[in-house]
Write a structure and sequence with these properties.
The protein has helices at about 15-30, 45-55; strands at about 1-5, 35-40, 65, 70, 75-80, 85. The strands form 2 sheets. The protein has a 4-stranded mixed sheet with strand order 1-2-4-3, covered by helices on one side. A two-stranded antiparallel sheet has the order 5-6. Helices cover about 20% and strands about 20% of the residues.
Length: about 130
């Protein structure tokens, strides 16, 4: 299966419109035989992502929002074809003051450490 690495502002949104978007992408992934690993951007629904990663079985692990789409946690290191990568994303928004809560990507933004201990050691998504 081919793999797409998406870097930032993927479109993780709350509510029905967010689910429809993921469902449509999942259908395209299935049709074309690809997977998507996402480094989240600053305009994702970080409130929901943070809550999902709070579960002990999900902490520090890729979060599969569908069969073919995984959201990588901050500081996640992985290897593809003998090359090492680290997923770092979600910078604060420079236009935060102009955004509406849960509507235009703000004011929720990533919180917590910018990297994790996992970013200093090799690993692969599980």
């Amino acid at each position: 299966m081919a793999l797409i690495l998406h870097l930032g502002d993927f479109g993780i949104w709350p509510g029905a419109s967010g689910r429809v978007y993921i469902d449509q992408l999942e259908e395209a992934c299935t049709t074309h035989g690809v997977g998507i690993w996402v480094t989240p951007g600053n305009h994702e629904d970080w409130g929901s992502l943070t809550r999902m990663w709070a579960a002990p079985e999900r902490a520090g692990r890729p979060l599969y929002v569908s069969e073919h789409i995984a959201i990588l946690p901050r500081g996640h290191r992985f290897t593809l074809e003998d090359r090492s990568f680290v997923s770092l994303g979600g910078a604060p928004s420079v236009d935060l003051d102009y955004r509406e809560r849960n509507r235009t990507g703000g004011p929720r933004r990533p919180s917590g450490p910018r990297t994790s201990p996992a970013s200093s050691t090799a690993g692969t998504p599980t």
